[in-house]
Amino acid sequence: MLMTLITVLVVSGALMLGAAWGAYGHMSVRLEGFLIALAGGALVLSLVSELIEPSIEQSSVYLASGGVAVGAIMFAVIDYLIDEKWGPNSGGGLLAAISLDGIPENLALGVALIGAGPMGVAALAGSIFLSNLPEAAGGAKQMAENGDRSKKRIIAIWGATAAVLSVAAILGNMLLAGVSPHWLAFIRCIAAGAVVASLATEVFPTAFRKDQHLAGIATALGLVLAFLLGDLGNMSS
Question: What is the CA radius of gyration of the chain?
């Protein structure tokens, strides 16, 4: 449980660091796009190696595929409703999208921690950290530029978001520990499908729009980074 709490604090802490960076610091548009693409590349590998492949081994490729499809459909429908209500470029819309993206990510993190060694989830946790940092920075930056909230209020909003996502990870770890391997595999793949859909509709389009063709290089670097983190986890397990 201690390892779960430490991992959750590190991952959710990225939201606070990113929000502070976006509200008080300076980040160029191209750097933001580069970091977002880096995070996306890391998530691609960690989702497959830490969520989907173990689910196939524990259950079947058909159940895993169904879970991924359900997760993707759920994200697409809710993301569409978010865009219709807040608009795709508003800070509030980004906040809602990150929360929607983060809940399955952190649920998946909590599930992945079940039975894992000290470094067994290094790739997934590192990838989510890399994802949260630039996304929170971009969202807080847009909220500050809109001028409808004070910087302190913006930080408070992101702090509440970090708390909600932390609870999701802890609940995923505690409540799903006794679930059968088949259901656990299905839940993992639902989370994976939601994150895959977010990569396609939110992460990579935003990265390319902000950093253009360097986003491809950043994505490859993120994938290599996730591979190295995963290899470190395998060596310690």
Answer: 17
**Residue 111 belongs to domain spanning:** 2-236
Alpha-carbon separation of residue 59 from 24, 80, 120, 218, 226 (angstroms): 47, 31, 20, 34, 25
Neighbour-count burial of 66, counting CB atoms closer than 10 A to its CB (0-12 exposed, 13-18 middle, 19+ buried): middle
Place of tokens 């865009």: 83
Q: What is the distance between the alpha carbons of residues 78 and 219, in angstroms, rounded to a whole number?
A: 26
First and final CA of the chain: distance in angstroms? 17
If pLDDT is split at 50, 70 and 90, which confidence band does 137 have?
confident
Per-residue pLDDT band for 73 (boundaries 50, 70, 90) equals: very high
Q: What is the pTM of this model?
A: 0.75
Alpha-carbon distance of 204 to 41, in angstroms, equals 9
The candidate with the shortest Cα–Cα distance to 55, out of 33, 71, 78, is 71
Torsion of CA 188, 11, 32, 194, to 10 degrees: 20
Number of folded domains that form the chain = 1
